[in-house]
């Protein structure tokens, strides 16, 4: 048997030149304790996205008093009044714990996104956005794009336990990643392939013999890890191949301006500026098919947002601010809830500002917005607020409020996957397992 170690590489030849592919961490490299190294005409694509705000809601200011299509918008949803008929609102859906302890601000968010009760971010993923990106993101330069707008590098998009897809935190860095080196203007008069892309394209095939030998010699767990690893390399190879073909022209596309360098922090005024710039860049990326899947984090689920001149965060206020007796709720917490919905409106504005087909980009998107809990003061995972925006190219209905009646929120996760074309009839585990689609949402 050939000896492999942590610094081993798989070797091969590419056009007569030696190439190598490094290996991921395998059990093979660890001690017994596992702790030490031993052109087109195609239909307009439907895009998917998630948008997360932290620390839940104030129920009496967020949940409509009636269900169906005739509901009145409560106070905290007034900022999104222009999109009332293009949003489906969901209240009263729960993450079921099944005896698993609730880890505040993690269990609700990842339970919603994975369909299983979770104690922490070591959940055996993937999250549903990854499942969707695997289905609709194969022919795009980026399988998905993740951003975090409040100055903290955080993501709730997971392909595997403990491995979140990293977020960009700077509008300038996001711009450079999408529209910098490697970007091909779809409406440019000429097309010139990037020579660096041509060099990197076929490295995996060059080490095929060593890859097959290694797969025969490792244990089952390592074969699983290697299969995930080589799958990611194949995805990269496919993306490189795409960059060697001229992109299809995109109607109404213009290059966005490069954003300025900004002060990246959690002060609400600054976050709203950062978020709006990122929303506009993501909308452009969706328009010119650099990606079909995006994940936006307005604030960490333990919301680090704060008011100008204050060091007290939104999260701290949810626990420490007394209820205003005249209002009946925490006044400053209510301010952050309203600001979050103003940001959500800005995000929808960015998508709706781009004409596409006989409507706008928003009409060809399905965006699921949600929080991590219902009442942040108690970290409740019952009644997590959520809403779906867009029309998904005619696949979904909007303009209504639905009360879940304590049903598992995995019903919503199942339904958005089905709306995005995934052949899934049942999703989730234990009390979160369901085959009950939300038929009111599906067109």
H-E string: EEEHEHHEEEHHHHHHEHHEEEEEH
| Number of extended strands | 13
Overall mean pLDDT: 87
- How many discrete domains? 2
Number of helices: 12
Distance between the termini: 57 Å
Uncertain regions spanning at least 5 consecutive residues:
33-40
Record the strand order, biggest sheet: 5-8-3-11-12-4-13
CATH second-level architecture of the largest domain: 3-Layer(aba) Sandwich
Q: What's the story with the biggest beta sheet?
A: 7 strands, mixed
Q: By helix and strand content, what is the structural category?
A: alpha/beta
- As a percent range, the share of strand residues is 5-15%
Summarize the structure.
The chain has 443 residues and is α/β, with parallel strands linked by helices. Helix content is 30%, strand content 12%. The chain contains twelve helices and 13 strands.
What would your notes on this structure say?
By secondary structure, this protein is an alpha/beta fold. The chain folds into 2 domains: 1-38 and 195-245, no CATH class; 47-191 and 256-432, 3-Layer(aba) Sandwich (Alkaline Phosphatase, subunit A), CATH 3.40.720. Helices cover 30% and strands 12% of the residues. It contains 12 helices and 13 strands. The protein has helices at residues 59-62, 107-114, 128-136, 171-179, 195-200, 203-206, 208-217, 220-243, 268-287, 314-320, 331-352, 410-419, and strands at residues 9-14, 17-22, 47-52, 87-91, 145-148, 158-160, 163-164, 293-297, 355-356, 359-360, 365-370, 386-389, 400-403. The strands form 4 sheets. The chain has a 7-stranded mixed sheet with strand order 5-8-3-11-12-4-13, sandwiched between helices. The protein has a two-stranded antiparallel sheet with strand order 1-2. Strand 6 (158-160) and strand 7 form a beta hairpin. The longest helix has 24 residues, at 220-243. It is globular, with a radius of gyration of 23 Å. The protein starts with 8 loop residues before the first strand and ends in a 24-residue tail after the last helix. 44% of the residues are buried. Mean pLDDT is 87; it is low at 33-40.
